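Please, structure for the following, as tokens.
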Amino acid sequence: MALGPTVRRFLGPRLGRTAGRCYRAVFVDLDEVAQAVTTWLPPAARLLDIGGGDGEALNRLLTRRPDVHVTTLDTSALLAQYLEPRFEAQVTRLPCTTLAQYLDQATEEPQVVLLADVLHHVPPAARPDLLAGLARLLERVASLRIIVKDIEPGSWRAWLACWTDRYITGDRHVDPISRAELIRLFTTHLGELRWQESDLIRRDHPNYAVAFFR
């Protein structure tokens, strides 16, 4: 059993959340991530958050952009458990849901898709399936923006993040993806796309954020 979930259960909800914040702060500044992401969000944006996690990142994002409405999905049953109550009306949770399932059921199209620290948890062999779902969305929404936040390999901080993902979080299949690899992957599977990089890599190295659009 992975150490991280065991420790959180032992500490309980309140102390577990505090410990999680301290642990995450070693690897990423969520305020810097939110600042980078929100610059690409149009007014009153409908955001699809794939692999939404515990909701801490959404709290930072919605603090800056209270006009945004979010649908967050995850294959896990536990989703956005730390979302602040003041944001409940702006967030729709879809636990135990894949992107393919969402696409088959969605009644409203997003304007923006966010993948924050998701791709390095997707094994390379499974990434084409994820990209196929994004391609379906691009067919429906020509103006779709896809924002990817991930970690550039090659530094001690990136190495430590990968190590803890494997041995603390329990994801033995974690596989880091560089900015160059990401751009090749997206342009190969999604056709001719423009892309723009934020200054997150400079402000909170090795974290990076890239937006893709037509």
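The domain at 28-213 is CATH 3.40.50.150 (Rossmann fold). The longest strand covers residues 145-151.
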